[in-house]
Amino acid sequence: MINQSPTQESTDPYSEGQHYVLQLFVTGISLNSVRAIANIKQICEQYLPGKYSLEIIDVHQQKMLAEREQLIALPLLIKRLPLPERRLIGDLSDTKKVLSGLGITN
């Protein structure tokens, strides 16, 4: 599932200087959390090498941050930059959907 904020459209992710800022919210070491972490790391290394920062947040350890984000389902990936901000829910195993949600054309 992808939620898209109604902000400006993103530019081509392969252009010079484009940097992705990602946050992945997980619940401890659950199977879905472990899968989501492995999947997003593989996608980032393959499609955004050197052009991303990824913060992994365990909602059990950072409850205040999780509450502030008003999380409804986990694992949840939030793409902060480039705009528009987008949210992807699940274990991120469907690479094509993840790339589309991140605005990456391959």
Overall pLDDT level: 85
Overall number of strands: 5
**Separation of termini?**
20 Å
User: Into which percentage range does the β-strand content fall?
Assistant: 25-35%
CATH topology: Glutaredoxin
Q: Cα-atom Rg, whole angstroms?
A: 13 Å
What is the class in the CATH system?
Alpha Beta
How are the strands of the biggest sheet laid out side by side?
1-5-4-2-3
Overall form = globular
- SSE order, as H and E? EEHEHEEH
What is the number of independent domains?
Answer: 1
Low-confidence stretches: 1-16
Q: What is the CATH homology-level superfamily? A: Glutaredoxin
Give the biggest beta sheet: 5 strands, mixed
| Percent helix | 25-40%
Report the CATH architecture.
3-Layer(aba) Sandwich
Number of alpha- plus pi-helical segments: 3
Q: What attributes characterize this protein structure?
A:
alpha+beta; 3 helices; 106 residues; disordered N terminus; five-stranded mixed sheet
Layout of strands and helices, then pairs:
Layout: E1 2-4, E2 20-26, H1 31-47, E3 52-58, H2 63-68, E4 76-81, E5 86-89, H3 95-102
Parallel strand pairs: 2-3
Antiparallel strand pairs: 1-5, 2-4, 4-5
Account of the protein in words:
Helix content is 29%, strand content 25%. Residues 1-16 have low confidence and may be disordered. It has a single domain, classed as Glutaredoxin, CATH 3.40.30. With 106 residues, the protein is of the alpha+beta class. A five-stranded mixed beta sheet has the order 1-5-4-2-3, covered by helices on one side. The chain has three helices and five strands, in the order ββαβαββα.
